[in-house]
Give the backbone structure.
Amino acid sequence: MAEALVSRLQHFSVDVADVDRSIEFYREFLDMKLTERHAAHECPNIPVELAFMRVGDVHHDFVLTHNPEKTYTKKTGLPQDDLEGPPSFHHFAFECPDRESWLKLLQRAKDMNLNIVRGPVVHSPFDPRGDGSWGENEACYVMDPDNHRIEIFCDMATIDSDGVYVNAKGERLEEARVTEL
Ligand SMILES: [Fe+2]
C-alpha cells in the first residue's frame, strides 16, 4: 500500500450566523483563543468573514466563517429532523488529553446549560460500560449557538500495526481488528 501523503486531519471550519457570538462561545466552552479575524473581501477572493481560532500553539485549529450576504436560517438540531437540504456535516470532535479533563469539560457544559444531545456515553461494543457503538472512547455531544453538533471525547482506541485495537489503558482488544491495514 502506498505511504499516506497526509499526516492527519487538522482544522475544521464552520459557517456561523454571528461571529461575535461564536467567538465568545468557543472561548468560554473550549478555552480557544482568537488568532486573527478578517472581514469579508479583505482579500479580493475571499467573500466571507473569517475568524481563526486555536487551542494550542498552531495558528488555527478551528475557523469560523460568515457570509454577510447570506440569509441564515436556523440549523436543524437533530439528524433525525434534517430531512431535506444539501449534504452537510454531522459533527466535529475535540479530544481531551485525559478523562479528568473530559469530566471537567462535561461539567462545564452543564454549568453553561448547553444542550447535551447525547451522552455521556462510552462508545464500545467491548467495554462493559459501552453502549454498543464504535471507536472505544468516552464522549458527549453538545450544540453550539448555531446548532452545530460538537463532540468532546477522551480515550479513543489506537490501532496496532497488525490491526488490533488498543484501548486507552494500553490493552489489546484481540476480538477487535480493523478491516483494512
Ligand atoms: Fe464522533
